[in-house]
Structure formats: C-alpha cells, structure tokens
Design goal:
The complex is a heterodimer of chains A (about 375) and B (about 80). With about 375 residues, chain A is α+β, with helices and mostly antiparallel strands. Chain A has 6 helices and 25 strands. A 5-stranded mixed beta sheet of chain A has the order 2-1-3-5-4, with helices on one face. In chain A, strands 12, 13, 14, 15 and 16 form a 5-stranded antiparallel beta sheet that branches. In chain A, a hairpin with a 4-residue loop joins strand 24 and strand 25. In chain A, helix 1 packs across helix 2. The longest helix of chain A has 16 residues. The two termini of chain A are about 45 Å apart. About 5% of the residues of chain A have low confidence. Chain B is an all-alpha fold. The longest helix of chain B is centred in the N-terminal third of the chain and has 15 residues. The N and C termini of chain B lie far apart (about 30 Å). The chains are: A alpha+beta (about 375), B mainly alpha (about 80). Chains A and B meet through strand 4 and helix 2 of A and strand 1 of B.
C-alpha cells in the first residue's frame, strides 16, 4: 500500500458525506446504496463512521461530473479515467468525482459503482495507489461483488496504518472509540424498543437489533454474546427487517427493504433477490417480521397490521391474504417487530413485549419482556 | 519515436499519443502550480516515465511501449496519479 506525501488523514472519527449530483445511468437509491456499502467497507476496518448529510458542505462531497468540471483534472469521456478523489483536507480534500460519461451499474453490465467508489474513498481517507494487484487500491478497474466484499489485506494494512484498527464492539457502535465495556448492553435492557428480527439458525437463536446481533442456545440463557452483524453477515450490515429458517431444508432467509438473502448457516447463498419472488403485491416495500411454522410448513409474513401466509411446499403465497393480525392472533397487541416458533409456540415480539402464543388454544399464554431473551 | 515502440507501425501514432497523455496524467509530478513542461518527443523523460509505469505495474522495465505496457495504458482506471502528487 502507499500513503500520500505528508500522510494526510482526517483528524476526526466521524465524517460527513453528501451526494450532491447523481448520474442518469443509475437510480439515486442504487447510488445511495453503493456509496453506503463502499464507505462501510472502510469503516469495518478502522474506527471511522460516516454520516450522510443532504445539504451544505460535507467532508466528502460526492458528485458525478462531465469533462472539465473545475478541479483541473478534467474527465475524458467513456472508459479511460473513471473517477478521482482528493486526499483528506479542507475544501476539495476528500471530495470524490465520478465520470458521468461512464455507464455506472450495481452489477457487471457497465462499471460497478460500488467497486469504483470503494477505491476512491480509499483516496479520500488518505491512501494512494497500491502496487499490489490484489489490492482494492490498485489503479486499474477490476469488478468486486458488493455483497460479500471483504477489504483485501493490503488495504486493511494501509488504512489501519493511518487510523488504527477498529475495536470490536460489545454494544451499539454509537461512538467509534467507545471503549468496549458493559454499559452499552444495558441500553437494550432499559430501552422500550424491541428486536428488528429473530430467527433460529441451526441450533442457535439469533436476535438482531441495529448493527448488533445476539446468539444463544434455545435452552440456555448463559453465554449470550453480541456481535456486529457485519462480522458474520457483511452484506446485511445493519437493521435487518425480518428473518426465518426452514430447518428441514437447512436454509434461512434474511430480509432488508425489498431484498432478501438466502443463507446456509452463516454462508450467504448468492446475491440478494427481491421479495416479489414470494408473490407480494408491489406496494409492499419491506417486511416487518417472518416466522416459519413447521407443522403446516407455512411462513407468516407480517407487514404493518396485516399478515400473509406463504406455502413453503407449493412455494406460493396463499389466497385470501393479507389478514388482520390482531383479529387472527387474539391477545397479541401492536405491530409485530419479530417472530419465531419454538417448541410449538409462536413468540411474537412487539416493542418491549414478547407474547408466547399457543396455536392450539389460539391464545396468548404468557407475556415476557423482549430483552429477557438476551439476558437482561 | 520508433525507438520507443516494439509495436507495429500501424498503431504507432495513436498509441504514442495515448501513452504520452497517460504518462502526463499519471506519471508527471505536478506539485503546486501547474508548470509547462517542454517534453522532447520521445525524450529521456518519456522513457523514464515509461520505466516508472512498468515498475509500478510489475512489468518488465524496458522503457519501450511494448504490447503489455500498452495493454495497461488502455485499461479503465482511477484518475489519481500513481506517482506522489
């Protein structure tokens, strides 16, 4: 790896970024996503965090430009130069420009924006070009799949030479240098919030919240430990909406926005797919919770105050859905945040409450604190 | 110019200009205010930059714009120079 002369670096750990101009060759949502993932690639290795702003001056101003765009490094049309970025510093420092004449894409039919953005943000953080052909900071373009991307060793060494390693967090990563200590966990114990998603995965029970997930054995409350989602599911990063496992098939599904991923254990099985594969109507943009019921081999998907039933054998959504959740599951109040079936009971997590629902009695048999499931 | 090329005469002129622009963009130290630089055609500064490029990309350092060197020059890339800037 190489650093710039004088080794310029940011003197703060939280950097702002703003996408001030977009490109016609990609949707702005995809540009936002690619940029977020590209920054995430670096913040997974060093104690930096990135905050997006939508107006005014940001540390890293990002824009798609054409030809001569006023910084004395004009672009040259299709191919050739794809993008450039400036080393850390005031004003132009950190700014990142992409050549609008290129065909940008989230995939491979054009230049993959995640790949180029991740490289350019290396410059914006203080890395020059590397002579290691396997490094992200090698000067010439080489496609990288955004999902499952791991920063090559040479780049990790380079960026940590500037900012030191990222320490693993025990709790929510609110402040990059927050010492890994107990108090971050009681946040969950005290807060009124619930989990984003809960699922079995093999023999373990996983609870997802923001950027953290907890793993535990079903019958043991000891040895519960938090990990960052990126450490085991880099593609998911944070804020998983829903998850469920079809144990007999050994696969699990993870949902985020209109996408889902399939895993075998912790192994991602390919790129994300769209939730419309399940037969959801287009107005459904995300899932709040999902639970697989072993007996009927059906998966219930909760969206707002309604739910859908998906037949896993026939691989299709059942007719006469959606139905109203509270009408069907008496005693379960509020929107469902997460759900999981254990030993014939369905556990519904709604805010700080976990409802234990008996499908035979068709009623709630007990109500617990959500956070009691992770040892609070 | 022929001394720089191990390539065929046909693509001579285009490749030469392409290479010159590439070396000017990525292998020319431009600190502070940009300065005009008279570059003798094929002068030793061009050979020197070709050698720098070949060393950076791990190619055989010949100082000539041979095929492998031209292949690298034609690859899409980042606009940040490869030499200290």
């Amino acid at each position: 790896y190489r650093l710039f002369p004088g080794e310029p670096k940011w003197k703060k750990n939280t950097l702002t970024y703003r996408i001030s101009k977009y490109t016609p060759s990609m949707s702005s949502a995809d540009v936002d996503k690619a940029v977020e993932m590209a920054l995430q690639a670096w913040s997974s290795a060093v104690p930096l965090s990135f905050v997006r702003v939508n107006s005014g001056e940001a540390d890293i101003m990002i824009s798609f430009e054409t030809g001569d765009h006023g910084d004395s490094y004009p672009f040259d049309g299709p191919r050739g130069t794809l993008a450039h970025a400036f080393a850390p510093g005031e004003g132009l420092g950190g700014d990142t420009h992409f050549d609008n004449a290129e065909k940008w894409t989230m995939g491979m039919n054009g230049f993959n924006l995640f790949t180029v953005a991740a490289h350019e943000f290396g410059h914006a953080l203080g890395l020059a070009h590397s002579t290691d052909p396997t490094a992200l900071m090698y000067p010439t373009y080489k496609y990288q799949n955004p999902y499952g991307f791991h920063l090559p060793k040479d780049d990790v060494k380079g960026i940590q030479a500037l900012y030191g390693p990222r320490k693993t967090f025990l709790g929510k990563p609110t402040v990059p240098h927050a010492p890994p200590h107990k108090p971050s966990i009681p946040d969950l114990c005290d807060s009124s919030s619930s989990f984003d998603a809960v699922t079995m995965l093999g023999k373990e029970l996983l609870f997802f919240k923001d950027r953290i997930f907890w793993r535990r054995q079903v019958h043991l409350t000891a040895g519960i430990r938090p990990s960052t989602i990126t450490s085991s599911f880099p593609q998911l990063m944070s804020n998983v909406d829903a998850a469920y496992e079809v144990a007999e098939r050994g696969i699990a599904y993870f949902f985020k926005g209109p996408h889902y991923w399939i895993t075998r254990g912790f192994q991602m099985q390919g790129p994300p797919r769209t939730i419309y594969d399940f037969g959801f109507p287009r107005h459904v943009q995300r899932i709040d919770a999902a639970v697989y019921l072993r007996e009927p081999q059906k998966t219930l998907f909760f969206v707002g105050d309604e739910y859908y039933s998906y037949d896993e054998r026939k691989r299709k959504m059942e007719k006469d859905y959606p139905k109203n959740t509270e009408e069907e599951f008496s005693g379960v109040n509020g929107q469902i945040d997460a759900a999981v079936e254990l030993n014939g009971y369905i556990y519904f997590f709604s805010g700080p409450k976990a409802y234990k629902y008996d499908t035979e009695k068709e009623d709630v048999v007990s109500v617990l604190k959500s956070s009691s499931w992770v040892g609070c | 110019v022929p001394s720089l090329f191990a390539g065929t005469p046909r693509s001579l002129r285009n490749d030469y200009h392409l290479a010159q622009a590439y070396l000017d963009k990525y292998y020319t130290r431009k600190g502070g205010h940009p300065i005009g630089e008279m570059v003798a055609r094929g002068g030793n500064s061009m050979v020197k930059k070709i050698k720098e490029l070949q060393a950076f990309f791990g190619l055989q350092v010949t100082g000539k714009l041979d095929q492998t060197t031209m292949d690298v020059i034609k690859r899409p890339r980042c606009g940040v120079p490869d030499v200290a800037n």
